[in-house]
Amino acid sequence: MEHSIVHLLEVPFAIIAGTGAGVFALLSWGIFRNSPFGTAIALLSLIMVALTVYHTLLLITGPDLLILHVLRSAANTIVAIFLGLLIVRHHQLRQNRPVGEASWKD
Predict the structure, then answer these.
(1) Residue 87 burial (C-beta neighbours within 10 Å; 0-12, 13-18, 19+)
(2) pTM: predicted TM-score of the whole model, two decimal places
(3) How far apart are CA 43 and CA 96, in angstroms?
(4) How far apart are CA 21 and CA 73, in angstroms?
(5) Number of C-alpha atoms within 13 angstroms, CB side, residue 79?
(6) 85-90: which pairs have CB atoms within 8 A and are 24 or more residues apart?
(7) Sequence-distant contacts of 51-55: CB under 8 A, at least 24 apart
(8) Residue range 42-53, pLDDT digits in tens
(9) DSSP label at 35?
(10) Torsion angle of alpha carbons 60, 61, 62, 68, nearest 10°?
(11) What is the mean pLDDT of residues 65-71?
């Protein structure tokens, strides 16, 4: 497969950007692991790692590999779990709020 110079520069950029985002997510999880959203942040770091690997392989090989379909399916499953966990956690926090308290404040 013939690649242009721009295409070849995208691969290291995808790896560097994805690694930076994953490290940032892991550092955030280290800070917020005891908070209500600690597990959600841990899942977010897994999503970032899976998507980094997926996009790097997509840039290198093309879209027709079985492993890419498996990685995309795994990433979508983790995203669905992440969103479900956030919805459940939101409902738990709303139910534990004392009666008569005003709406959420920042």
Answers:
(1) exposed
(2) 0.57
(3) 24
(4) 21
(5) 10
(6) 85/39, 85/40, 85/43, 86/37, 86/40, 89/36, 89/37, 89/40
(7) 51/18, 51/75, 52/14, 52/15, 52/17, 52/18, 52/19, 52/21, 52/22, 55/14, 55/18
(8) 777 777 777 777
(9) S
(10) -100
(11) 83
C-alpha 94/C-alpha 38 separation (Å) is 17
| Strand positions, DSSP E, the chain | none
Report yes or no: 67 and 57 within 8 Å, Cβ to Cβ: yes
Residue whose C-alpha is closest to residue 32's, from 90, 88, 40: 40
For the chain, how many residues are written?
106
Contact 48, 82 (CB under 8 A): no
What pLDDT is recorded for position 3? Answer: 65
DSSP string computed for 44-72: HHHHHHHHHHHHHHHHHH-S--HHHHHHH
Nearest to 30 by CA among 17, 12, 45: 45
Distance of CA 43 to CAs 12, 22, 55, 83, Å? 24, 11, 18, 10
